[in-house]
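I have a small job for you when you get a moment. Would you make up a two-line entry for one protein for me to read? No commentary is needed, just the two lines. Write everything out right here, beneath this request.
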Amino acid sequence: MTVVGAITQEKVIAFDIIGKSMKGEDFKKFVKEHLVPELWDGAVVVMDRLRAHQVEGIKEMVEEVGAKVIYLSGYSPDFNPIEHLWWELKAFIRRFVPKSKIVVEALLRMAVKYLISSVHLRNYFAHCCYCTS
């Protein structure tokens, strides 16, 4: 199972659970169906250098709506705010010791919808040295 998402300083703008290990085409579908519809002119999409993030056509889809893609340098999770979200979600799920994929998915969806606030998100960005004012 793979969880993929995108955040701003205010909210989780895209989120999906893929029932398998994510391949490039899975990420491309996520970008097309979930991320691009939420982007705006001037948005900046920061991604690490995961091979799936670099599939042909992804950068072009993002740029079509007036957004920009920035790829982080290799091995730099400290500069990726969404890594903090993943850490919190994993910690939340571990508290329940889920026994099935269905329970994990339900916990993930609940946590994203009800537990993550704009304060959390701004703190993730600030911790990664992005301006949050």
